[in-house]
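pasting for the record
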Amino acid sequence: MTSIADIEIPAAETGLGEVFEAAPSMNVEVEQVIASNGRGLWLSGPSQSEIETALAEAPAIEEHTSISRGDDRWLYDVEFGRDVVDVFDLVLDERGTVLRATASEGTWYLRIRFAERDSVSTLYDRLRENDITPTIVRLFDLTEDVHSRCGLTTRQYETLVAAIDHGYFEIPREISMQELSDELGISHQALSERLRRAYRALVTTELDVADESATTPAITSD
């Protein structure tokens, strides 16, 4: 059964611990799609010169490269040393998908989707074994009862959740439809059709509007 877990991790116990010590006002958001051997991190809060200094002096960071910039934030490709525990690799090992990862005020906030609920406990234990102290803030299953009341299929519900978590509905958008389709492992067209069906289901169910275009209910898992 698919489960969603919201987890908090002290940044001091990760490779960015020294960075937060040097720049406590730092805000971090993990880039969802980036082609590199490191981690794409959007950094904001301090000035860019303060960020550069904190990255350069952090012993856990081997290399950092400025890639792009947005409104008062900068995208860096950051490579950590081999001794640094990669939390995201541990998540992948447990068949988890990081839907959102941000850090501020010395704490990482992760939203992770797991194919199996038991994987949450396994990840928790593996983090503790690596001297990382996770706190499970919220854990819920994507059961039929959660979304059926809104007229959504499981895939439609999961797609909307992923779209929200990846910032697809933000202004401006934090992820394109192509990037979101790549993240979900489906085609651009399939994602577009799934979202349209989900929008229609929400409108017709929540606003009690009859869907006159569908004289015969369509049977679909999307």
